[in-house]
Amino acid sequence: MFRPFDNRDPNSLATRMRRARFTLFQARLDRLTPPFRILDVGGRVNFWAQMGFSGRPGIEVVLLNLTTEEVTRPGFQMLKGDARDLSAFAAGAFDVVFSNSVIEHLGSLAHQQRMAAEVRRVGRCYFVQTPNRAFPLEPHFLVPGFQWLPLAAQVALVRHFNLGWYRRQPDPGAALALVAEHRLLTQRELQALFPEAEILHERVLGLTKSLIACGGWPAGTPNRRPLRGGGRN
Hints:
- The protein is α/β, with parallel strands linked by helices.
- The chain has helices at residues 13-29, 45-50, 109-122, 151-160, 172-180, 187-193; strands at 36-41, 59-65, 76-80, 94-100, 123-131, 198-204, 207-215, 227-228.
- The protein folds into 2 domains: 3-137 and 183-228, Rossmann fold, CATH 3.40.50; 141-181, no CATH class.
- Strands 3-2-1-4-5-7-6-8 form an 8-stranded mixed sheet.
- Strand 6 (198-204) and strand 7 form a beta hairpin.
- Helix 4 packs across helix 5.
């Protein structure tokens, strides 16, 4: 693992960027009047703990993921579910939908469209972050330009090397499945998925590392000031 991009390290660039992103998210939450409900699509308890959010009176956080874990923090609950199908929830069931680095793991544009439509349906406002396809370092395999290589080259690399977050997958089918899970989005594609959204940019060395789609927030929320990595905690 390339340490600056290891979000398990509390001092890494990735963690500092997550904290800056979450600070922006909390500033938007401050414009809302409790009580309100947040749905975190793809959420885990340890993410909120790492961000220093221990709960607030009148704020309920529902964590939705493919697998569940025990939740003991007040104001949090966890449900099993799929980002592409939120039919368990009525339209407008949540005041806020939050999602961090999930939509790029759905494998196809059709699946990403389904998630985006569900987020927009169940949430009155939303904050959806995803890595930028145009950033030169692919954020999962941590190989420069990996996302632009032909599929066969990607699979070959995954079969023969440990890359980023993943151990090598000698089996061709397993390697193909791992590669196919990842589909990074461009700004134009993200805007098309969330047509009414403002797209915020997170920058590293002047390049956009991540994109955030923000929609439905009350007027007066923080706007287009870019986030920059490498700042102080």
